[in-house]
Amino acid sequence: MQVSIIIPTFNSEDYLERAFASAVEQEGVSFEIIIVDNNSTDGTVALAERLRLQYPEIVRVAHEPKQGSAAARNLGVRLAKGEWIQFLDSDDLLLPGKIQRQIALVDDSVDWVLGVITIVHLNGEEQDVGVNEDAWAGLLNYTGLGHLNSNLYRRAILIQAGGFNESYRYCDDFAMYFILLKYGASLKKDSTPSALHIHHEGDRITTVNKSAMAKERVLLTNRVVEYLEKEKYEYYVKNEASVNSARLNCLRKQATYDIESASKNFRYLFPNGFRREDFLMAALPRFAFLFQVMGFENTERVRNIFAEFLPPSWKAQLK
Fold first, then answer.
1. Residue ranges covered by each domain of the chain
2. CATH number for the 3-198 domain, one of 3.40.630.10, 3.90.550.10, 3.40.50.720, 3.30.450.40?
3. Cα separation, 2 vs 93, whole angstroms
4. What is the pTM (predicted TM-score) of this model?
5. What is the pLDDT of residues 50-101, one digit of tens each?
6. pLDDT tens digits for range 133-166
């Protein structure tokens, strides 16, 4: 068995069959599909069982009672028989030929294939997110290390790293990327779009709490920075401006949902306030000079006020 395709699912009755079709239609490799239900209350389980009966030789259905995508994915990895792991969110899609192309890229030295993800926004617009040549920068900026759907992982490295950290409810994928980088997982890059990550208004495997998600992102970012400063000091010093920019952008994301916590974190991380020389300006918004004039908290409060009534095309300029 070359590949185990793991589909964690929660209340995905409206999407699962579409995701499953994109998996079962992969060609040129031997694979199994493991659907891991995570406490669905709609018709997801019945649909999963119907798919299992339709494809009994390659489909298994499992149930993970512990809520969260990390626990569901970990169960899938434990059950997997394939040498390689392909994750697929039940509301997303693999593109044709994805797995065959990436399997052809690997040899015994490769642990992890990074693939381009195509994001499909609510308005139907598509955006390709490429792979960053600097893996640590990709991790800090939450782009550039592919996406769980667009990547491919050697099962052995996931087991060795201990699986997904189930204490993370929202950033478990990036927490896993952090562990893999610390373990020295060898990377291979695939420049071809590999999967679609489709935004929608429906339920996901976790209940979306954007404030809690932003908080977890800040905590994880700080863990990464502390690791770099301690264990990869030369890299940290060389890239300190971009590291600071990543931290600031993370705090700005938190400020959208929890201005008080973000302002407190800013004062702790940047006790001297916003100083232009501390940041890589290309990674900051056009209005970054306002941080010097008005301070972080006041600038972010004004941004949030404007974001309430500006049209979407203008609102994007405030990010």
1. 3-198, 210-318
2. 3.90.550.10
3. 20
4. 0.91
5. 999 999 999 999 999 998 899 999 999 999 999 999 999 999 999 999 999 9
6. 999 999 999 888 999 999 999 999 999 999 999 9
